[in-house]
Amino acid sequence: MDPLSPSEQALHAARALVLADLVAGDVAEADVVSLVEESVVHRRWWVEQWPEGAEFLAGLVAQDVQDALLERYGRWPLCPVCGSGDPHALDVEPELGPDPHWVCPKAGVKVAALGSLGAPGGAAPPA
User: Can you tell me the distance from the alpha carbon of 94 to that of 22, in angstroms, rounded to the nearest whole number?
Assistant: First the structure.
């Protein structure tokens, strides 16, 4: 068995981080996991064209899934920081950069690293 390329390793890591956050939010149903797989397939082509972008894959996959969920189901992940006002989704920052994290766009605070929603030190899943 051949070892995985750095790009393929980054794709697997991105998949795992996004799936961890979906599980934490209790939304990792089969159809939602399929959205993750669709993004990974799309981003595999993208990183083949630009291998230097491998460190950006996790944030891009998270944004892809977030956009697909918004179109089909609604906002995800919901902000656990703001207790009042309209429910709103967290944003991935940086939009194109390494070490992505979830940020509340209204409060301007970092909520959790990507893959850490619901983990100790990360945000609790919405009730």
Answer: 19
